[in-house]
């Protein structure tokens, strides 16, 4: 295969991995329904995926070393969620535009910004797939996206390049995540564990960006969380999560309830955890070929 064909090949591999990753391909909800799930998750995001800040520090350290920050730098954080990266970038840049399709996530982020006295964070409620780059105020010095399921194909990835006049940073899963209960929940809902084909693995966007002639660097950071929830809260959260695959029958709901109540700790709480590694890829859009 000629090198010029490689990005296209990698894009096809990414599409295939997405379609074979049942975690994504079995979803039955519309984009608006997915956004509603994010809205509801906003309140608890910071005690799960938002809890481990090592992945944020790793990206900031690398961007700093590469000279991405300056007093005039303006950044765009796509799929900013509760502000994990936006708030950190705000301390290093003149302004940060935090784009997310979920109003719930943006409200939580802005409450945190107010408490921290952060004044240079600008929320933009929009879908990355459909937003026109002309509607954004400029081309940005840094364009970042972390765990944003809205950037899951070549087109939405390369839109990051078009929005940037400096660096891009894309962070996502790296390898398989270990979880105390996800597999058991899947067995209850689907009768088996879902096939995970790495649809959201960093290897796919890395290969595309590399195949286009950029020289992306890759950093790894652990991302772990452990949380305790009241049984009713845990039940509601798991129903919301698996509701993306279609309505849950009363029988499935009662088995989920049973599973949760059979695993309460000495404080009467359902505790669970996840361990994963994040791949953080950074490339300079001016450094080509
Ligand atoms: C897992 S959270 C990641 C939040 C944050 N970037 C982090 O690393 O903790 C994914 C976020 O992406 C947002 N999102 C998903 N698809 C999107 C899209 N097409 N456009 C904009 N935001 C999107 C969700 O609303 C959610 O807030």
Pick out its properties:
289 residues; alpha/beta; Rossmann fold; eight-stranded mixed beta sheet; binds S-adenosylmethionine
Helix/strand/pairing category? alpha/beta
Question: What is the N-to-C succession of helices and strands?
Answer: HHHHEHEHEEHEEHHEHHE
CA(first)-CA(last) distance: 18 Å
Oligomeric state: single chain
Give the helix level as a range of percent: 40-55%
At the fourth level of CATH, the homologous superfamily is Vaccinia Virus protein VP39
CATH C-level category: Alpha Beta
Would you give the CATH topology?
Answer: Rossmann fold
Number of DSSP E strands: 8
What hetero molecules are bound to the protein chains? S-adenosylmethionine
Q: What number of structural domains do the residues give?
A: 1
Parts with pLDDT < 50 across at least 5 consecutive residues: none
- β-strand percent reads 15-25%
Mean pLDDT over all positions: 96
Q: Any guess at the CATH architecture? A: 3-Layer(aba) Sandwich
Outline: globular
Major sheet: 8 strands, mixed
Total helices: the number is 11
Radius of gyration: 19 Å
């Amino acid at each position: 295969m000629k090198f010029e064909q490689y990005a296209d090949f990698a894009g096809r591999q990414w599409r295939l991995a997405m379609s074979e990753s049942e975690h994504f391909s079995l979803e039955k909800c519309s984009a608006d329904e997915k956004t509603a799930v994010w809205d509801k998750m906003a309140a608890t995001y910071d005690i799960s995926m938002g809890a481990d800040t090592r992945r944020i520090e790793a990206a900031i350290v690398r961007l700093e070393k590469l000279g991405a920050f300056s007093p005039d730098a303006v950044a765009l954080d796509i799929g900013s969620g509760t502000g994990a990266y936006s708030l950190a970038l705000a301390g290093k840049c003149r302004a940060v535009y935090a784009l997310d399709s979920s109003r719930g996530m943006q409200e939580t982020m802005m409450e945190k910004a107010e408490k921290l006295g952060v004044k240079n964070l600008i929320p933009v409620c929009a879908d990355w797939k459909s937003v026109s780059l002309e509607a954004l105020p400029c081309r940005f010095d840094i364009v970042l996206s972390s765990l944003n399921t809205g950037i899951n194909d070549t087109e939405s990835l390369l839109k990051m390049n078009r929005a940037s006049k400096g660096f891009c940073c894309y962070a996502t899963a790296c390898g398989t995540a270990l979880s105390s209960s996800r597999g058991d929940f899947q067995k209850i809902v689907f009768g088996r564990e879902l096939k995970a084909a790495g649809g959201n693995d960093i290897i796919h966007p890395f290969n595309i960006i590399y195949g286009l002639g950029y020289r992306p660097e890759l950093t790894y950071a652990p991302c772990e969380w452990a949380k305790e929830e009241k049984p009713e809260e845990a039940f509601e959260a798991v129903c919301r999560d698996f509701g993306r695959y279609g309505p849950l029958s009363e029988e499935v709901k009662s088995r989920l309830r049973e599973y949760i109540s059979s695993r309460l700790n000495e404080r009467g709480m359902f505790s669970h955890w996840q361990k994963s590694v994040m791949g953080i890829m950074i490339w300079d859009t001016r450094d080509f070929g």
